[in-house]
Structures are given as C-alpha cells and as structure tokens.
Design goal:
Length: about 325
C-alpha cells in the first residue's frame, strides 16, 4: 500500500476513564467497574489512527510543562510518527478529560479541560508551514483555539494541501472557513449545530447536507453511529454501511474514523473507498477500551471489511446510492 503523508494538527489530552454500569445522577456517587489512564485528545487520537491505518504522520500539538505534559512527550515519542512538533507553555496545564463509559452500548460522557490546547500562537503556527506544505492531507478538529485552526487551514489552502476538518467538539465557525475545507466530517450532533436541522437518521442527514452545500462546502461525511454514514459530494449522496461490531467503548470511534479516512485519502483512495475503510476501522476500535490505545491496524480493518461483506448482503458494493 502506498503510504501518503498526513499532517495532524490537534489536541493532546490525558484521558482518565471510568467504566460504569450506568451514568451517575446529579449528586450521586457510584462505584466504577474499572478505570484507566491514557493518551487522548482528538488530535493525538486521530494521528495514531492515521499512523496505524498506514500513513506517514506528522503530529502537531501543545501541552503544559507539567507531569501530564511529560506523559504526552513519552507517549508521542514512542508512537512511531515520522515527526512530532510539540509546543509547550507554563501558563496552562496539559489538556485532560474525565470520561464515563456506561451501559450495554458503551456510550460515553466526557468533560474536557482543554488547557494548553487553547494557547497555540500565530508564531507557533507559522513554524508549522513547511510540515503542512509537505503533506498530502491536513487533518484538524476544533479542540484548539480557533485563530490557530484558521491560520493552519489558510496555510494548507495556499499550498494545495487537501484539508479535512472534523468539527468536534463543536464551536461556532464562519461559513468562510467552512468553504475553504475540502472535506467536512461532522457527526449527527455537530451537523445539527452547524445547520439548525435536527439530524438523527439518513433522510435528516441528507437535508442537512444540502444546507451545508449551500454554505459552499463541496464534500462532507455525516457519521451516524450504527446507522452508518452519509457521504455527500455536491449533492450526490451515498450511504456508507456500518460494519458489525460489539461495542466496549465508543470514546474513540469518531477519531478512528477520521484518522483512517485521512490515511486512505493520502494513499490515493477515492472518497468512497476511504470512507468504507474508515467505517470498518472504527468498528474494530469500539470493541476495545481506551482512545489512542484502541486504534487497530490496517490489516485488522481490512479483515473486518471482509467479515462485513459476508454477514451483510447490502455490503456487496459497500454503498447504496440514493437517487
């Protein structure tokens, strides 16, 4: 497989995860079934996913000068990235997240303190210009300060680097910024917040996609969990089927999807091919606990794609084309 170059700009958080039989009610204390601490943050998670899915990855992020920051450096040094640009500050702590995972569907609730992730300066962004220009793909999210994200996207646009924006966690962004993006990848909640259209299934995702195209966005993928995803390019839509999975922890599902998607686009796959692979990749991820630690390999996702075709007849072509 051809290895493309993916530059991921985004957050690093230290995740503290508690597995629960159910979510606690306000004021209630519950005993966790288990707990763990590990690397997280949408940027770092997506970078690890892109790497394990086959890409050459340059990760760019920022941490505090604290114990969590030391943990981040050790993790990133050992991850296997082609390159890491890690800025630091003494004014804010390293980002961290408190995560509950509960119920049979392994749904999650997350409270994030972004910390240093929100302090990336213009000067630091400018230092990243060569890395962005050299990449096939820039993958970024909304867990950093918006001016830094906007400047990185502008640099990518100037240099002809393909831009994927995962608008998570949601924060308001201008239509001008959205129109600069080559591919937008919201989930149902983010798509609802972007458009004002309540998205809960494929038909409502189609309506929201039309509204986003009207804002100047040419291509988008709306992820819908077990319902699969909707790929829409200039109004032409396809359903991407979800692969069968038995979820253990859904925390990293969106990050797995985005990282795998970027890796395959960088390697020369079409949007349809990349989205099919990303769906399979995310289905393997949710069967494992943790975020970055749960990211599967390229081979595991390819194997899942084969199993999905055998088990589900409509995966014969991977997509159902909507007229």
């Amino acid at each position: 497989m051809k290895k493309g170059k993916v530059c991921v700009f985004g957050s690093f958080n230290l995740d503290i995860v508690a597995g629960m039989a159910r979510f606690p009610k306000p004021g209630e204390s519950l005993i966790a079934r288990n707990s763990m601490m590990g690397a997280g943050g949408k940027g770092a998670n997506q970078a690890v996913a892109a790497l394990r899915a086959g890409a050459r990855v340059h990760y760019i992020g920022k941490v505090g000068r604290d114990d969590f920051g030391m943990f981040a450096r050790r993790h990133l040094d050992n991850a296997g990235f082609d390159a890491v640009t890690l800025f630091s500050t003494s004014e804010c702590p390293t980002g961290n997240a408190l995560i509950y995972v509960a119920g049979a569907d392994a749904e999650n609730m997350i409270a994030v303190d972004p910390g240093a992730n929100l302090t990336v300066t213009d000067e630091e962004v400018e230092q990243c210009r060569p890395a962005v220009a050299a990449a096939d793909i820039l993958l970024t999210q909304l867990e950093n300060n918006l001016p830094a994200i906007e400047k990185l996207i502008h640099i990518a646009k100037e240099n002809g680097t393909y831009i994927i924006l995962n608008p998570a966690p949601f924060q308001p962004v201008s239509d001008h910024l959205l129109a600069q993006v080559d591919l937008l990848t919201p989930n149902a909640t983010e798509c609802t917040l972007l458009t004002g259209i309540e998205v809960h299934d494929i038909p409502s995702a189609q309506r929201a996609a039309h509204a986003l195209h009207a804002k100047g966005i040419q291509a988008l993928i709306v992820t819908l969990g077990t319902q699969g995803a909707l790929l829409s390019v200039n109004g032409e839509t396809q359903i991407i089927a979800a692969c069968p999975a038995t979820p253990v922890d859904t925390t990293g599902a969106g990050d797995a999807f985005n990282g795998a998607l970027a890796s395959q686009l960088a390697a020369g796959s079409t949007l349809s091919e990349a989205a099919q692979f990303a769906s399979a990749y995310a289905s393997v991820c949710v069967e494992r606990a943790g975020a970055a630690a749960s990211m599967p390999t390229y081979e595991e996702a390819r194997e899942r794609m084969g199993v999905g075709r055998e088990q589900t007849s409509f995966l014969r072509d991977a997509f159902q084309i909507l007229k």
